[in-house]
Amino acid sequence: MPGFILIGLGGGLASAVLFASAASGGGAGRMLLYLLVPLPSLLSGLGWGSAAAGVGALAGAAGVAAALGVKAAFMFFLSHGAPVAAICYLALLARPVDAKAEPGTTTLEWYPPGHLVTAATLIAGALATISLLVLGPDLDALRTLLRDLIQNVFLKEVPGLRDRPLSEDEIAAITEFALYALPAGFAIMWLGSFLLNLWLAGRITQTSGRLIRPWPDLAAMTFPRWLALALAAAFALTFATGYPALLGSGFAGAFFLAYVLMGLAIVHFVTRGKPSRPFVLWGVYLSLLILNTWAALIIALLALMEPFLPLRRSGPPAAPGSD
Fold this sequence. Notes:
By secondary structure, the protein is mainly α. It is 73% helix and 2% strand. The protein folds into two domains: 1-92, no CATH class; 111-323, no CATH class. The model has no long low-confidence stretch (mean pLDDT 85).
């Protein structure tokens, strides 16, 4: 049996165990396990090829089906198995380019990291939309589900609200807000955790010598030009009603996080070789933790303005393996 099949089986079953444990666990441990679900399959895919990731997707779905049933297996394959296989396939895409070095040598051009983030962003927006269809067949069913969760879980867990019950109008307002914020929240959570696992898997395989492609210059990544227009269109859709607004919310959340990451890449790029680099980076990341949404908005605007600014048109070269 080829080695990539065994590695793919191991990675897929490890992801299935994490998924099943997260589904049956509780509290913060459950969330941590869920966030780590893609990691084993990404390790096998980046280190042994996209075929190993494809084997892992099928093996993981089979393992989840045996433990939790067919519906859970479908959700695993849709949210983890298939995206991991697709992203690993794209990450390992390469084409030969003309080399001016030694005769007989071939230089490979690898799939750009910015396009890889774009692909993951589109997957996140699509999954946010699909998750709503799975949760409820229509908006009224979704409202009822969210209302029950808010009344029976959220309001009982918040100490200040247990002593002061909310009125029906207040609960209805919270439910309506949660309905339209849910797709964006899901897309942001999925995309952030997936890209973090992708980066971690890349670093692990690079350290072990198994990474098939060279480490990209993440700070110099760029997005396709149409992505900014897609962000504007998704944001405009959020002003609609019904499912179009939910669709816009999911994609707007994913695109927004993508541009926050692009803004951070710009900060990393422009501070290369400067003595103030550690202080600037610490300040930026602390502002994200403290100011949160406002800091993220400013960083995303920086990325959106970058085509009109000469921020990354020149700068010191990246050190090998650096970000």
